[in-house]
Specification:
alpha+beta; elongated; single chain
């Protein structure tokens, strides 16, 4: 899922890739990854399928394209659940609702 944003906002922690791109890849990509989550929210997914841990905690990617437009991208929790063979559940829906709210809030100027 991709949502155009202007200006970008950050919730909790982030991983910056600009340093790595400048020092390792020779490029200056403008990206960072906000990481957010609550242990209680992800636990039901990991109980249903321990492999879901590879996708937790939830995160997003904030990035800027070649035209200078900022974007927010993230994996929908429903897709993550399907990827790990987890059926529909209140926990998955709660995560999906929370991420949609985060994306909406973060992308409002």
């Amino acid at each position: 899922m991709h949502v155009q944003i202007d200006p970008p906002h950050v919730l909790e922690d982030k991983i910056g890739f600009n340093w790595w791109c400048r020092t390792r890849a020779g490029a200056t990509a403008r990206t960072f990854t906000p990481i957010f989550g609550k242990t209680a929210a992800g636990t039901p997914l990991m109980q249903a399928a321990p492999t879901a841990g590879i996708d937790l905690p939830m995160k997003a990617l904030v990035w800027q394209d070649a035209d200078g437009v900022a974007w927010l991208s993230y994996n929908d929790p429903r897709w993550i659940a399907a990827r790990h063979g987890i059926g529909a559940s209140p926990a998955v829906e709660a995560l999906a609702t929370a991420l949609a709210a985060f994306a909406k809030h973060a992308t409002q100027a």
